């Protein structure tokens, strides 16, 4: 046997560069050490040398030729080492220290002219105190004895020490430093899928027979503190074969894991990884949805949709069935930052929010942050939806597709360079036009309702330290239902990202992204009123972020970002020479937004972890353009205008900004039970303008300027997270309180679009939201799913001494999306590996609405008197969906594997109102309601994968 810290093998030197191994024995080891003479520091011979990219063996041969020294080593240890070094008039000890600095080799002098190279380990001249134990069994008390306390004890490595019968091959990590011996060392690395080359997220790594555990992040990176010497690490993750590695820790070091897929162990592996993340992370209000895992949830028309699944999680809802956008913890839809591969996507939904504008077969999943938002993100008050596209298959051509009642879908994964780079190409479209024209309804013959989206992603794992990704995406919607107007809107984005590992402590990412959103209306009527209306917003962002592990307890995150906005607030042009429409062009708006951020993740002890940081946000509204000024303290209207200021191109109109603090903490009450708390504040410099409560894709985005201030938000949250029954169940209970300043709403009867002075039509006031979120989740077994319940309130207040700037007498009132009670139940039951049934039940309090409460006559005309804004509610919403999932057989050698989903949306046929509106017929006011799906909607979708 041999000891990794003392002597790798007992050697009989035969010639330089070779060793013959004798049978090891401890008494021989001690005898050799006793007679070895270490003359380090006594050598007076001075040597010089200069080497550039020279093989280490060549360097050693050169030193032997110049000096009386002879070197002994195994050639395998130095075969791949190349040395660049220069030294002059120094001792052999000093020269070797420089030469071997960037290798895993140490050296030891056994005589005046013999030098032994050692891989990873070192040799001690004497054994530590009490290596063989004390006769009296007492504790060390003397000064010399105190030096031994806390040092790593000698550990002999042989088959008696090994804790496994499997031969994984022992991996040696780091190089021993006699001046810095510790009981524990840090192991860092990256986990990669052996087939695709993409990072493995949520890989659970544990040290056998200890409580040491960690989880890989979204880029596959991990870090864990291991005892010095021998360890066995187990690695498990969803879809990855359970793996073990034997490691010998000599010092801090790096180990990259290339892991094989293993679909047979999914049920057990998923729980291990997710459970650790749920309890141990510091992040509050975080949710994660995997696109593949969402396929068993019955949704409208059989479409797999991670954004619809998100609404079944606590704290996330929408204004109603068919409404665009999501409301997170009482926030408006514009308060969500939705990212697709680091680029903003302004409208991530098709066809009034019924479908997501994301290809489910190219989408990996989404990470949702409702509470403790990471420091790199900013510019929104409520949440971040970080959507990631999957990396392509680097081994062979593969693909996935589906055919449904309304849409068709196809995604291909194409290897570019085997085991290194790939291309993902996805396309998706709807053929609703054909369906509408096939119906026996004359009014629908000229209808149009179609959409498509396409995405391309390139991924190149250049080497262990460099990775490049680039994504291009485009989507377009066009619809016209029994009218003369063709509505259309589109999203376009591009992003590129370079991830670089600088060293074992620091990695960074450089990102460039551009996003563009447009909508328009083409009106072709019978009168001379034809027109073309257009709106557009474009942004370009550059971001650079880094992460440095300072020591075993501190990890520093820091970076910088800059974003340029360009907004076309709207234009209208006549179509044809006979049109009477007057052209209108609103001045373009521009602005610059930037941020600096820095934070530290601190492991105070095994139970307490803190994330603290600050992000400084900056915003500058830029010319060219004109801005009005108004009399201070008076309502903004034509009579209170003081002046009109003109600004040249690039001139700063107004600046805003300030610090955003991000603080989060986690304390482990038990290994499977934690309490978390967080606080953060944020600025939002971008706003939407809309006075619609019905379905509409034509909300416009408005930049902060001289008259419209940025919104500000403050949120505090506290939550408890518990796992039960060997992580089979997850339970969380989290409460939050949010305050918002300068939120926007519209005056009654406001005209917002194509208004050059829109500040006269909007109000800025206060908002508050609070609630409690409950989630119970079952992760494994034939029956799985989750139950979520949210109690929440979302309230606004617009107060002023002037009545025209007040809403509801200046009191708090419910927002359009205030729904106190929200319950979702998602279940899936597997009869076998091929057959399963699923159900989705939703209940929500009806959203607020403004009702007419009377009529009156004035100047011989009838008028309707309305209630306070949002003083009433539409009927409560509930819906039940059912689905049957049938997988094809699991034979390995098949052209394609199939999956069929048969579902019924709204099984109960509930006529859930989306909105209530009022008409006057024969002098009588009548209430009418609009609904999206008032009957059961059956569908069957065929999915295939090859």
Automatic annotation (TrEMBL):
GO terms for cellular component: cell outer membrane. InterPro entries: Beta-barrel_TonB_sf, CarboxyPept-like_regulatory, Plug_dom, Plug_dom_sf, TonB-dep_rcpt-like. It holds the Pfam family CarbopepD_reg_2. It is a multi-pass membrane protein. Keywords: Cell outer membrane, Membrane, Receptor, Transmembrane, Transmembrane beta strand, Transport. It is found in: Cell outer membrane. Residues 302-379 form the TonB-dependent receptor plug domain. Belongs to the TonB-dependent receptor family. This is TonB-dependent receptor plug.
């Amino acid at each position: 046997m041999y000891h990794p810290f003392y002597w790798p093998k007992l050697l009989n030197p035969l010639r330089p560069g070779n060793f013959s191994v004798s049978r090891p024995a401890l008494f021989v080891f001690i005898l050799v050490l006793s007679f070895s003479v270490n003359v380090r520091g006594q050598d007076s011979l001075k040597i010089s040398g200069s080497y550039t990219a020279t093989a280490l063996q060549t360097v050693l041969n050169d030193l032997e030729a110049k000096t009386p020294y002879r070197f002994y080593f195994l050639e395998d240890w130095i075969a791949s080492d190349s040395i660049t070094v220069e030294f002059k008039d120094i001792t052999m000890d000093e020269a070797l220290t420089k030469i071997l600095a960037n290798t895993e080799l140490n050296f030891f002098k056994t005589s005046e002219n013999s030098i032994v190279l050692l891989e990873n380990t070192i040799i001690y001249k004497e054994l530590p105190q009490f290596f063989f134990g004390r006769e009296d069994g007492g504790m060390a008390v003397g000064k010399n004895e105190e030096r031994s306390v806390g040092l790593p004890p000698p550990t002999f490595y042989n088959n008696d020490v090994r804790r496994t019968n499997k031969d994984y091959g022992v991996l040696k990590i780091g190089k021993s430093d006699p001046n810095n011996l510790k009981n524990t060392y840090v192991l860092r690395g990256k986990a990669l899928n052996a087939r695709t080359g993409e990072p493995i997220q949520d890989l659970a790594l544990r040290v056998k027979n200890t409580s040491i555990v960690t989880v890989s992040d979204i880029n596959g990176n991990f870090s864990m503190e291991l005892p010095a010497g021998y360890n066995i690490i187990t690695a498990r993750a969803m879809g990855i074969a359970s793996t073990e590695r034997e490691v010998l820790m000599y010092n801090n070091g790096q180990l990259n894991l290339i892991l094989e897929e293993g679909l047979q162990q999914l049920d057990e592996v998923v729980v291990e990884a997710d459970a650790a993340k749920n309890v141990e992370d510091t992040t509050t209000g975080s949710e994660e949805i995997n696109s593949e895992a969402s396929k068993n949830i019955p949704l409208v028309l059989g479409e797999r949709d991670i954004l619809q699944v998100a609404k079944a999680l606590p704290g996330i809802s929408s204004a109603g069935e068919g409404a665009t956008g999501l409301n997170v913890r009482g926030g408006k839809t514009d308060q969500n930052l939705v990212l697709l591969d680091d680029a903003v996507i302004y409208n991530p939904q098709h066809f009034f929010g019924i479908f997501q504008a994301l290809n489910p077969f190219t989408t990996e999943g989404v990470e949702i942050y409702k509470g403790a938002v990471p420091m790199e993100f900013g510019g929104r008050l409520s949440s971040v939806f970080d959507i990631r596209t999957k990396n392509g298959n680097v081994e062979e051509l593969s693909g996935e597709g589906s055919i449904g009642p309304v849409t068709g879908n196809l995604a291909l994964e194409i290897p570019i360079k085997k085991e290194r780079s790939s291309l993902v190409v996805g396309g998706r479209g709807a053929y609703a036009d054909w369906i509408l024209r096939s119906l026996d309804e004359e009014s629908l013959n000229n209808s149009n309702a179609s959409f498509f989206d396409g995405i391309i992603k390139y991924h190149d794992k250049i080497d262990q330290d460099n990775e490049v990704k680039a994504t291009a995406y485009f989507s377009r919607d066009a619809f016209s239902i029994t009218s003369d107007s063709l509505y259309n809107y589109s999203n376009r984005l591009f992003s590129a990202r370079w991830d670089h590992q600088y060293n074992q402590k620091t990695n960074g990412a450089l990102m460039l992204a551009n996003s563009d959103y447009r909508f328009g209306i083409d009106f072709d009527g019978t009168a001379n009123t034809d027109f073309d209306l257009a709106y557009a917003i474009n942004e370009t962002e550059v971001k650079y972020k880094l992460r440095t592990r300072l020591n075993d307890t501190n990890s520093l995150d820091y970076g910088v970002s800059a974003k340029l906005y360009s907004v076309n607030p709207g234009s209208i042009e006549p179509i044809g020479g006979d049109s009477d429409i007057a052209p209108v062009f609103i001045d373009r708006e521009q602005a610059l937004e930037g941020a600096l951020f820095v934070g530290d993740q601190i492991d105070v002890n095994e139970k307490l972890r803190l994330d603290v940081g600050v992000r400084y946000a900056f915003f500058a509204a830029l010319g060219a353009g004109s801005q009005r000024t108004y009399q201070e303290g008076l309502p903004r209207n034509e009579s209170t205008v003081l002046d009109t200021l003109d600004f040249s191109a690039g001139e700063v109109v107004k600046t805003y900004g300030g610090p955003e603090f991000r603080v989060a903490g986690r304390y482990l009450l038990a290994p499977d039970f934690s309490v978390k708390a967080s606080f953060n504040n944020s600025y939002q410099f971008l706003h939407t303008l809309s006075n619609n409560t019905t379905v509409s894709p034509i909300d416009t985005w408005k930049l902060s300027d001289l008259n419209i201030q940025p919104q500000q938000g403050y949120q505090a949250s506290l939550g408890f997270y518990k796992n039960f029954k060997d992580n089979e169940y997850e339970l969380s209970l989290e409460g939050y309180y949010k305050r918002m300043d300068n939120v926007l709403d519209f005056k009654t009867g406001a005209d917002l679009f194509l208004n050059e002075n829109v500040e006269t039509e909007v109000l800025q006031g206060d908002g508050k939201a609070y609630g409690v979120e409950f989630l119970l989740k079952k992760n494994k077994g034939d029956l799985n799913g989750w139950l979520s319940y949210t109690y929440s309130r979302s309230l606004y207040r617009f107060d002023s001494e002037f009545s025209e700037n007040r809403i509801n007498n200046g009191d708090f009132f419910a927002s359009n999306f205030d729904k106190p009670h929200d319950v979702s139940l998602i279940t899936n039951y597997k009869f076998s590996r091929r057959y399963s049934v699923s159900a989705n039940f939703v209940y929500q309090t009806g959203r607020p609405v403004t009702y007419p409460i009377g009529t009156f006559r004035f100047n011989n005309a009838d008028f309707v008197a309305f209630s306070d804004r949002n003083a009433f509610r539409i009927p409560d919403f509930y819906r039940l969906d059912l689905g049957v999932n049938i997988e094809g057989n699991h034979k390995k050698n098949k052209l394609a594997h199939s999956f069929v989903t048969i579902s019924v949306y709204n099984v109960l046929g509930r006529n859930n109102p989306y909105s209530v509106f009022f008409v006057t017929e024969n002098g009588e006011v009548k209430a009418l309601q609009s609904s999206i799906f008032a009957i059961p909607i059956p569908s069957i979708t065929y999915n295939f994968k090859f």
